[in-house]
Amino acid sequence: MAHHPLVVAALSVGLLAPLASGMYSSSSPVLQLTSKNFNEKIIKSNHASIVEFYAPWCGHCKNLKPAYEAAAGNLKGLAQVAAIDCDDDANKPTCQEYGVEGFPTLKSFKPGKSGKPVVQNYQGPRSAKGIVDYVLDLIPNHVTRVNSKTLEEFLQKNNETAKAILFTKKGVATPLYKALAIDFQGAITFAQIRDKETDATELFGIQKFPTLVFLPGGAAEGVVYDGEMKKDQMFTFFSKFAKPTTGKQHTKEDKPVSSSSTSSTTSAPPRPTFDATIPAVPSMQEFAEACGKKICVLVITPPVAVPLIAHEKTNAYINQAKQSFHFFQVPLSTLPGTFKTALEIKESEKPQMIAVSTKKRWYVPYTGEPESHEAMESWIDALKMGEVHKKKLPDFRPEDVTPPKAPKEETPKKEAPKEEVPVKEAPKHEEL
């Protein structure tokens, strides 16, 4: 039986419609992006985002899909997990703008202090956990830490402004609380007080932790939140008192700050990152001893020397950061292989950074682009606030932290040359 041409056309549209929507369905937790809504959803957002640039025919993209959707589900309400179909002609200008050359390409967008997002390539594990851990570190922190001494000043400042105070046993703000502070940024001031601040807890009559107290502002009586400490319920509670902010305002001239340039309009050399005045560490043992109670930041320089005289802005910031941390420089070639493997130090032609606390036995690798001042500044700020995912520092034997000794130069002798014994301490190239 022959079908009417219109019926055939309708069937064809129906069969092709799912393909037109890309790889992710409308019910997917992954945010669907196009060139039309990219600026509004990502660039103007107050929230941290990770974006997958993909093509529906790409096998690696299909393999990533389950983990990416799982990550989106875990990060729901905390950060944005989004995707854009670069195979769609309408989206190709956006994909080209961000220098996408292969699929899938994952890039993170973190709101910056200047009002422009910092863009970084995601180079971590293509797993739900890897993506979630990475994105959680990107969530901006607008939560004020208050103690018994600063409480009165906090309450008096902008007295008419609504304030939310969380009394908790945690030392740092959780991703959930930080996300709420972003949702109501500019409408509600969020603060956090430790349970150890007894004067503050007694003033408010706090008996259990966590307890959330909301102060509407002015002479209005405070309200104790009695619901579940979950995003949807807390969001609904705050919405009764203030309107959530959906994004930040940008001018048409605003463009994101990219940590890796996608186009070059000048022949100027790339901006260097690290301060050349950072002292060198003579041995890993002395490095560990020098850290003491402070956090140490190890700057690993590549085998081929690169200019490390810092950009003026970066130089000033590192010098300021030295008040909080010890900075050391060490050549990659002097690090034992066991040390590099344990602390995720790679064979690289770019400088690397890793923060270490020998007292509390943890380390945090810097995963941003070495050329990005904004990304490095954000990482150091996160270290100061404790807003980083710390990894357990493995135990080392003395031989593991002592760099290999350089072979002594021998004066040529007339006798027959002796057979040389290989230096056992020499680091081996390890595939990571």
Automatic annotation (TrEMBL):
MF GO annotations: protein disulfide isomerase activity; protein-disulfide reductase activity
- Per its record, how is this protein called by name? protein disulfide-isomerase
Q: Name one GO cellular component term.
A: endoplasmic reticulum lumen
Q: Which UniProt keywords apply?
A: Disulfide bond, Isomerase, Redox-active center, Signal
Q: Which reaction does it catalyse?
A: Catalyzes the rearrangement of -S-S- bonds in proteins
**EC primary class:** isomerase
- Ranges for the region named Disordered are 246-275, 391-432
State the Gene Ontology BP annotations.
response to endoplasmic reticulum stress
**InterPro entries in the record, alphabetically?**
Thioredox_PDIA6_C, Thioredoxin-like_sf, Thioredoxin_CS, Thioredoxin_domain
Annotated localization? Endoplasmic reticulum lumen
Location of the Thioredoxin domain: 11-140
Q: Does the keyword Isomerase apply?
A: yes
**Where is the major localization of this protein?**
endoplasmic reticulum
Q: Name one Pfam family in it.
A: Thioredoxin
- The UniProt regions of compositional bias labelled Low complexity, in chain numbering, are 258-267
Q: Taxonomically, which superkingdom?
A: Eukaryota
Decide whether keyword Disulfide bond is in the record. yes
Enzyme Commission code:
5.3.4.1
Q: Where is the signal peptide?
A: 1-22
